[in-house]
C-alpha cells in the first residue's frame, strides 16, 4: 500500500455544501477511507441526522446508540462514542442517529452553542495529538450543526456536482464561510473543491470543471470523481466505494484525490 504523507498538524476538515445530493457524504467517507488506507490516522464525525456516513462506514447508529448527539448535547467525551470501522484499521467513526434530528431546536437555548463541537474536538486532540485527519460530514443546510462544523474546522472541502446550476448557491455558501471566518474562526479556509458525478462524455461536465477552475484555480482538485454505480451501491453493503470495489473508476478517483489532499497538507503539492 502507498504511504500517504502526514499533515504538519491535525487537519479538521468539513465537507460542506447546503445543497443535498451533491456527493458530500460519498466524498467524506471515501476520502476518509482512502486517507486511512494510505496509512493515516482518521476520525470521521457524522453530524447529519440521516447518518449516511455512519452507514457507509459500518457504524451502529440505531436510535439510542451513543453518538455525536450525546457528545454535543450531554457533553460526554468524543472518544467515548467512537466506533472502529470494521473494514479499515486506521478509521474510527462518531456516528449520528435520528436523535440528532431534534438538535437544531434543542440547541436554541444552549449557551455558546456554536462552540460545542470545537470544544469537544480540542479536548479530543489534546489526548490524541497523533490523529492526522478529522473529517466531518454535514447535513444539507446552513443550520446550527453545520455552523458547529465550520467553527471546529481548520479546512473546508466543497463538493460540487457536475450538473446544471452547479454553482448556484455557492455564493451564499462562500458568504457564510466568510462571515464565520471573521466572527468565529479566523483559521478557517476553503482548501479543496471537488467536482463529483463527472461524466467526461458531456460538454456540461467539462464546462462545470472549467468554471470551477476559473473561480478556484488553487482549490480545485485535479481529479474529478466520475459517476460510478459502484460508489452508489457501496453503502448498501455498509462499505465505502474504495473498500467495496477498489478497482472501480470511482474508487481510483477518490484515492487520487485523497493523495492530492494529503500532499497539500504535508506541505507538498
Ligand atoms: P449528499 O451527502 O451531498 O446529500 P450523497 O453523497 O449522499 O450526497 O450523494 C447523493 C446520491 O448520489 C447518493 O445516492 C449517492 O450514492 C450518489 N452518488 C454520489 N456520488 C456519486 C458518484 N460519483 N457516482 C454515482 N453516484 C453517486
Ligand atoms: Mg449527506
UniProtKB/TrEMBL annotation:
Domain named AAA is located at 12-190
Residue ranges annotated as transmembrane are none
What does the UniProt function comment say about this protein? May play a role in septum formation.
UniProt-listed InterPro entries: AAA_dom, DNA_Partitioning_ATPase, P-loop_NTPase
Task: Please give the CDD domains that the UniProt record associates with this protein.
Answer: ParAB_family
Name under which the protein is recorded: Chromosome partitioning protein
Q: Which family does it belong to?
A: Belongs to the ParA family.
Classification via Gene3D superfamilies: P-loop containing nucleotide triphosphate hydrolases (3.40.50.300)
Amino acid at each position: 500500500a502507498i504511504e500517504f504523507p502526514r499533515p504538519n498538524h491535525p487537519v479538521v476538515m468539513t465537507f460542506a455544501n447546503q445543497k443535498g445530493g451533491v456527493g458530500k457524504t460519498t466524498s467524506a467517507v471515501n476520502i476518509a477511507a482512502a486517507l486511512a488506507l494510505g496509512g493515516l490516522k482518521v476520525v470521521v464525525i457524522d453530524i447529519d441526522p440521516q447518518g449516511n456516513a455512519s452507514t457507509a462506514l459500518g457504524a451502529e447508529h440505531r436510535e439510542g446508540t451513543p453518538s455525536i448527539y450525546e457528545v454535543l448535547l450531554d457533553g460526554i467525551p468524543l472518544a467515548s462514542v467512537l466506533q472502529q470501522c470494521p473494514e479499515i484499521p486506521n478509521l474510527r467513526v462518531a456516528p449520528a442517529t435520528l436523535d440528532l434530528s431534534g438538535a437544531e431546536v434543542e440547541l436554541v437555548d444552549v449557551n455558546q452553542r456554536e462552540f460545542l463541537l470545537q470544544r469537544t474536538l480540542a479536548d479530543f486532540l489534546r489526548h490524541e495529538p497523533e490523529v492526522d485527519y478529522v473529517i466531518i460530514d454535514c447535513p444539507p443546510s446552513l443550520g446550527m450543526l453545520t455552523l458547529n462544523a465550520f467553527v471546529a474546522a481548520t479546512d473546508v472541502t466543497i463538493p460540487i456536482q457536475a450538473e446544471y446550476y452547479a454553482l448556484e448557491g455557492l455564493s451564499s455558501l462562500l458568504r457564510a464561510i466568510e462571515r464565520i471566518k471573521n466572527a468565529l474562526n479566523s483559521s478557517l479556509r476553503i482548501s479543496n473543491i471537488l467536482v463529483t458525478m463527472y461524466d467526461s462524455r458531456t460538454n456540461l461536465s467539462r464546462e462545470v470543471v472549467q468554471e470551477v477552475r476559473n473561480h478556484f484555480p488553487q482549490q480545485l482538485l485535479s481529479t474529478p470523481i466520475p459517476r460510478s454505480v459502484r460508489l452508489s451501491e457501496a453503502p448498501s453493503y455498509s462499505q465505502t466505494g474504495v473498500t467495496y470495489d477498489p478497482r472501480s473508476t470511482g474508487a481510483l478517483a477518490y484515492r487520487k484525490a485523497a493523495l492530492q489532499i494529503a500532499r497539500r497538507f504535508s506541505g507538498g503539492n
